[in-house]
Amino acid sequence: MLSNLSRFFKELLLVQQLLPFPLYARWVLGSVKNLGVLIKTQSLGILDRNLGSPFHIIFHGKKISFSDVDFGVVREIYGHLCYAQTGELRNAKHILDLGANGGAFTIFALTEAPQANVYAVEAQSEFINILENNIQKNSYSDRAETECAVVGGFYDDWTQSLAKLNPNVKEFNIYEYIQSVGICDFLKCDVEGGEFHLFKGDLSWTKSVKKMALEFHPSKGDVDQLESKIKSQGFKVKRVDHRNLGYFYCERE
């Protein structure tokens, strides 16, 4: 109980740094209204949904606006820095965002890396308009490109259903991307199990990647085997387990 309270108060301080006061007050008041749900679920998701959309945050003095994005995702990326630390992307020129969703990390990367072009890949066509709208509203359209594509191929019922819903969706060709940019300074990957399929077969493309942050999903594949494959390509890997998922932070040795 005490550890949960401690985690909650830490989260209060973190959110206070991100949200302007009126939005922060709305988020906090949600905890009073939904106290029973908070205690039962041990999750802040109800508060994130209570915030609503659109909203904006203040990140290192800069206003960043979002529509149709889960604030919980923003908390993880901008508050907990789950993919990249502040300043880590400063000198990057080419960044690949696999599993861009509504663009929270894409915009983080564009903000943190003022010289970078970001290529954002999202499999669900309904998120592409949200992604592009959020890029545009933050005035980053000149440094971002989007693609509706599946990462790792059509390997299960869910990815195959995407093809039925959108016949134009294709498999992302990472070899073509690497060939077009030469060097990928940072690759972020959150593709709900597709990471295990991305790292199958010919992995020569990894030689042109400097750093990676991968979210892994243990229910979708062998995490130890995935870690070994990444290490075999010359990366030093830090593994962080986080509830029902985890992260690999990979950097060239």
Describe the structure.
By secondary structure, the protein is α/β, with parallel strands linked by helices. 42% of the residues lie in helices and 24% in strands. The protein folds into two domains: 2-73, no CATH class; 83-252, Rossmann fold (3-Layer(aba) Sandwich). The protein contains eleven helices and ten strands. The strands form two sheets. An eight-stranded mixed beta sheet has the order 6-5-4-3-7-8-10-9, with helices on both faces. Helix 2 (21-33) crosses helix 4. The mean pLDDT is 93.
Question: Care to give the gist of this entry?
Answer:
The chain is α/β, with parallel strands linked by helices and 253 residues long.
- The first-level CATH class of the largest domain is given as Alpha Beta
Shape: globular
What's the story with the biggest beta sheet?
Answer: 8 strands, mixed
Q: How are the strands of the biggest sheet laid out side by side?
A: 6-5-4-3-7-8-10-9
Q: What's the total count of β strands? A: 10
The number of distinct structural domains comes to 2
Order of helices and strands: HHHHEEHEHEHEHEHEHEHEE
Structural class: alpha/beta
Give the low-pLDDT segments. none
Radius of gyration: 18 Å
Integer average pLDDT: 93
How much helicity do the residues have?
Answer: 40-55%
**In the CATH hierarchy, what is the superfamily of the largest domain?**
Vaccinia Virus protein VP39
CATH fold-level label of the largest domain: Rossmann fold
- Please state roughly what percent of the residues sit in beta strands, choosing from under 5%, 5-15%, 15-25%, 25-35%, 35-45% or over 45%: 15-25%
The CATH architecture classification of the largest domain is 3-Layer(aba) Sandwich
* Structure annotation, total helices: 11
End-to-end gap = 41 Å
